[in-house]
Specification:
Radius of gyration: 14 Å
Protein name: Ribosomal protein L32
Shape: rod-shaped
Helix content: over 70%
GO cellular component, one term: ribosome
Keywords: Plastid, Ribonucleoprotein, Ribosomal protein
Strand content: under 5%
Number of helices: 1
Length: 33
């Protein structure tokens, strides 16, 4: 069960980091337009 919690928190941190970089990319694209 602890391994599942670790995997879940790891996936959550990875997904949040990915969405943050995606948001920054979108902002940069809008600034370039």
């Amino acid at each position: 069960c602890l391994a599942a919690i670790k995997a879940f928190s790891l996936a959550k941190s990875v997904s949040t980091r990915h969405s943050k970089s995606f948001f920054v990319q979108q902002k940069n694209n809008k600034a370039l337009e």
